[in-house]
Structure formats: C-alpha cells, structure tokens
Amino acid sequence: MKKKETKLPETEEGTVLFNVPFPEDLSQLKKMSPIIIKWPYHIDYIHSYGQDSPFFAGLANKKLVGTKCPKCGYKYATPKYHCMYCGSECDWFELPLEGKIHTWTTCHFGGEEFLKETPFNLILVEFEGVDSLLLARLIGLSQDEIRIGMKVKAKFRRNSQFKPTDVYFVPAE
C-alpha cells in the first residue's frame, strides 16, 4: 500500500513574512532579534448596562433621563441606582433637553472614540432644579466662543449606538 502524501493547503490568509533571518550556526539563535508581527484580533464582548439600561433606552428614544432620591430628594443628571447620600433606591425622571454650561475643557488627546475629532470640547451641563451635572461633548463652537453659563440643548445621534456619546450638545441660541 502506497502512503498518500498529506499537506496543508497554502492560503493567502494570515501573516506572510519574507526574508526571515535565520543563522546557519544554531548557537546564534539565542542572539536573534524577536520577530514582531501585526495580527488583527477580534472579540465579541457581551456587556450589560444593568441598572443603567433605562438611561441608554432614553438616549435611543431621544430623551435624557436622570434619577431622583424619593427620601432626600437629591436629583442626579448622571443616574445613580442608589442615592449617594442616604442609600435609598432612586426613581427615574425625564431631564430637560436644555441646560447651561457649568464648566468646560478642550481635549487635545482622546481615546479611540474621539481620535478623529481632536481637539474636541467637553462640557458639564447644569439643568434647572437638578443637583448634579452631566458630562457631554459640545459641538459647533470653537473654544474661543464657549462661555460658562451659555445655554445649550441636547442633540442625539440619528442611529443609537447605545453609548454615552449618543447625546451631544449644541448652542441653544
């Protein structure tokens, strides 16, 4: 019986290296420089928004929602499941879509989400009757035009990505 030759098929996939140095004297292998390659990597990451899910459902529906403590009355623009002052479970309420700039900064460096947009402006939005602030991007103004106390209004991405960046602010006037 003749042995059949078995071979893996050659493909165009994967990493192709040319002229990889290899010494004739194997004692020199310990001195060889490491081979460094770029290898694409993909993973599906399953993440739960858990108790913050109503906030992201609100963004997808062009609404801002915060929480309010039923016991002490503290209102959070950035939702909290439990009050940080008395520990009570909070209730959801709808935030207004207009507020004013409490403070701001221009970011000249950013994470992957914002690399194409640098520099970009971040603001802390103050809402009437709400005790805490909401961090968001301000679009449409240069840093020379931004003023503390300036009125701003919320805008939403047309197609929600279920990210905090689904909401941004623009000048209200």
Could you give a quick summary of the protein structure above?
This protein has 173 residues and is mainly beta.
Descriptive notes:
The chain is mainly beta and 173 residues long. It has one domain. It is 5% helix and 25% strand. It has one helix and eight strands. It has a five-stranded mixed beta barrel. A hairpin with a 6-residue loop joins strand 1 (65-68) and strand 2 (75-76). The longest helix has 8 residues, at 53-60. The radius of gyration is 27 Å and the shape is elongated. The chain starts with 52 loop residues before the first helix and ends with a strand. The model has no long low-confidence stretch (mean pLDDT 90).
- Parts with pLDDT < 50 across at least 5 consecutive residues: none
- Please report the distance between the alpha carbons of the first and last residues: 88 Å
With helices defined by DSSP (H or I, 4 residues minimum), what is the helix count?
1
**Overall tally of domains:** 1
**Spatial extent as radius of gyration:** 27 Å
Strand order of the largest sheet: 4-5-6-8-7
Helix content: under 10%
Q: Assign the structural class, choosing from mainly alpha, mainly beta, alpha/beta, alpha+beta, or little secondary structure.
A: mainly beta
SSE succession: HEEEEEEEE
Overall pLDDT score: 90
Number of strands: 8
Estimate the strand proportion: 15-25%
Q: Which sheet architecture does the biggest sheet show? A: 5 strands, mixed, barrel
The 3D shape can be described as elongated
